[in-house]
Design a protein that fits this description.
The complex is a heterodimer of chains A (about 290) and B (about 230). Chain A is built from eleven helices and four strands, in the order ααβαβααβαβααααα. Chain A has about 290 residues and is an alpha+beta fold. Chain A has a four-stranded antiparallel beta sheet. The chains are: A alpha+beta (about 290), B alpha/beta (about 230).
Chain lengths: ~290, ~230
């Protein structure tokens, strides 16, 4: 009977104040959806770092007037460098071949380019891509026939920086929405406690246990939190399928695909955060307004 | 059954204590009136016995339990051995007489089956047989107070506290309620009643404790309002 009573009270409570309940659920949904997106992005940047840091190279472009002696000297210097894993010499012809593959979609552009207009280079893989600064000190542009040194990691870093700021923004947004959600939950619980003040007074008078008095209110908040978490998760999943898997599929070629496992991982996370946050808010509100 | 030992209660911001070094002992099965003018501290005694307020100094013992040192999480269970009736009845307006009484049982964990057995019995006892399914607004003041008494008594408490239970009732109805409390008292329940209804006190001829400005000025075994 007690379980049935409590559940019934929860449903009646949510329904009595249905507009407030909806407002509460919407803010929780948006907040948790943003939180999920933020966490997913964080995981994604980590995955991308793992993936790309194995691939990235430092390109040493050579000047047009470079001579064979300089090339051999540079090659030997690179092979002897303890920071370097591999170093491959790319001739103008190699560069053209690569260029053709890269721009296979635009044959006109490819035809307009010949081998001479492309620079000769060394493609260097570092043992640890983070060591670029140390590495670059011994390979200065303008010396030994070197025209430019380009670290792909720096290009990648720009992409990661964008990701990190988007992630931070969605986290900040999630926190702001969470603050609004907490206030709404607190307010809903206050209204609920007020509309049931007579019942609560009688319960306390006849000696109903504290949990029995509080449970319907706390559960009311938890149910709203859980619904918000599920909706937030659904939104996240739809967003992933619609945006990343379809509309922005081109991007995923660069971004590395988001694994479904990571998205599913958000469900327990969001449900846990949603339920705990609302339960704690409700419980604290009751300590002030019910004085049990 | 009830012991107040050197009890002083001063409310915050009050210039003088509501109760000032009060000593009272009440035996099991007694019927006691607390009388005195408004603001004399009578109602504070009820609140102390329920641990709705905490004594500033002194010791309050109810049912052999030291209320002053009772942990707050134990208060609900402690209150199950005490029934309470108030001047304003405190019934739930959206529940029938039966449901009001059953509610008190259900929220302390009794099953619906127990309620079905016990509630009609106690409603019969208070003289509301046949009116179980009326809502409070369909009952007279006296009948509403009977529902409140039934709710207070349904759990067979050892003590019944009544805070001006006849304050909202006409003299004839008041006497009926007093007969009811008297009947409950005869079942062995200790009854403590706060009132300033002199008629009733004079008719009942029970123990009277008079309080004035927080002090006991009279404690008489078969007293009158005086």
């Amino acid at each position: 009977m007690r379980v049935k009573y409590v559940l019934n009270e929860v449903l009646v409570g949510l329904w009595r104040n249905v507009t407030m309940t909806i407002a509460m659920i919407i803010t929780i949904t948006v907040s948790l959806g943003m939180l999920g997106a933020s966490v997913l992005m964080y995981l994604q940047v980590d995955r991308m770092k793992d993936f790309y840091y194995g691939e990235i190279e430092v390109s040493i472009f050579l000047a047009d007037n470079v001579n064979d002696g300089q090339i051999t000297a540079l090659e030997q210097k690179l092979k002897a460098d303890p920071l370097v894993k591999t170093a491959v010499h790319e001739t103008k012809e190699d560069a053209l071949a690569r260029f053709k593959v890269l721009y296979a979609d635009s044959p006109d552009f490819v035809n307009a380019v010949n081998a001479d207009s492309l620079p000769e280079s060394f493609r260097v893989k570092l043992k640890n891509p983070e060591d670029y600064d140390k590495f670059s000190q011994s390979y200065q542009a303008g010396q030994d026939g070197i025209q430019r040194v380009i670290d792909q990691r720096q290009l990648l870093q720009k992409v990661f920086n964008i990701f990190n700021s988007v992630q931070l923004m969605s986290l900040v947004f999630a926190i702001v929405m969470a603050a609004a959600a907490v206030l709404l939950v607190g307010n809903t619980i206050q209204v609920a406690a007020y509309s049931k003040r007579r019942e609560v007074a009688v319960m306390k008078l006849v000696g109903a246990s504290n949990w029995f008095v509080q449970a319907p209110f706390v559960l009311e908040a938890v149910v709203a939190g859980a619904i918000g978490a599920i909706l937030g998760f659904v939104g996240l999943f739809i967003g992933k399928v619609v945006l990343l898997d379809n509309k922005l599929q081109a991007l995923t070629a660069i971004l590395t695909p988001v694994p479904n496992g990571n998205v599913w991982l958000m469900l327990p996370l969001l449900a846990g955060v949603g339920a705990l946050l609302s339960a704690a808010t409700a419980w604290i509100t009751l300590r002030f307004y019910l004085k049990v | 059954m009830i012991q107040l030992e050197n009890v002083t209660k001063t409310y915050p911001k009050a210039s003088r204590p509501s109760l000032d070094n009060v000593n009272v002992g009440i035996e099991k099965g007694e019927f006691v009136f607390f009388i005195g003018p408004s603001g004399s501290g009578k109602s504070t005694i009820i609140k102390l016995l329920l641990k709705e307020v905490q004594a500033t100094r002194g010791k309050v013992v109810v049912n052999a339990k030291d209320v002053t040192s009772l942990r707050s999480w134990k208060v609900p269970h402690f209150r199950r051995s005490i029934g309470c009736v108030f001047q304003d009845f405190r019934l739930l307006p959206n529940r029938t007489a039966y449901e009001n009484v059953a509610f008190a049982l259900e929220v302390i964990g009794k099953t619906k089956a127990v309620a079905r057995r016990v509630v009609p019995e106690v409603l019969e006892l208070v003289g509301l047989g046949g009116k179980e399914h009326r809502y409070p607004h369909e009952l007279s003041g006296g009948e509403q107070q009977r529902v409140a008494v039934a709710r207070a008594f349904v759990n067979r408490p050892l003590i019944l506290l009544a805070d001006e239970p006849t304050g909202n009732l006409d003299p004839d109805t008041s006497i009926e309620i007093m007969r009811l409390l008297d009947r409950i008292n005869r079942t062995g329940t200790t009854v403590v009643m706060v009132t300033h209804d002199s008629n009733i006190v004079n008719q009942m001829r029970r123990r009277v404790i008079e309080i004035e400005s927080g002090r006991i000025v009279r404690d008489q075994a078969r007293g009158v309002y005086g």
